Give the backbone structure.
Amino acid sequence: MQLLVNVDHVATLRNARGEGYPSPIEAAEVCERAGAEGIVFHLRKDRRHIRDEDVYALKKGVKGTLDFEMAATREMLNMCVEIKPDLITLVPESRQELTTEGGLNMPGVFDDFEHRVFPHVRQTNIAISLFIDPNPEDVELAHKLDSDAIELHTGTYANARSEPSRNAELERLRKAAEQAHELGMKVNAGHGLNLDNLGDFIHYVPHLNDVSIGHALISTALFKGLENTVKEFLEIMEAG
Ligand code: PXP
């Protein structure tokens, strides 16, 4: 299992003052030095956090896995072919949202992905992951597209308000991970994972490949330091 740190929020802080710091590139270096196996960034259409120049610098600087999270627009697909990250993770994106709010609408995007997105990305050797909710129909559709991986949306688990709903969501995640693994896809996961909920998640959900963590990790780092925080997340993953 690999920890991929999402550095979008470092760019958010930088952009809040229009200064050149803090640098998401420097953050990526510290995370990798602390043991993270890779870095994730989401280049949004509105460039609210990561900007084009960050993408080029991250491509140059990141030594481990580079995961380019994006909406499947023509602009982003062209950029991903140019950048050649190790992995692209396709996510839904809407302008008003504060963060990615759910998995892809797989029945809705299936034809578009089959005819436009996958052939475009398959011209390269970049692996594709689809960010989906943990339900069997969406896992099946990801497999039908011949996706290399799925990223399970863990937001519902992370935000569950009661023990029964949390456990029910863990069970859905476990089943979806089993199904994806049996179908030959890698299983990634992310959204809302933090020092309190990561342990139970990785204990219960099998076959995890990449775990993508951003907001809670960068927030915790304000108080504990980035290097210490990455190590703390890694300790949980190693114990899991
Ligand atoms: N995975 C995906 C697809 C995401 O959109 C996000 C949020 O940018 C994450 C993982 C990380 O979520 P968080 O910032 O809550 O850790």
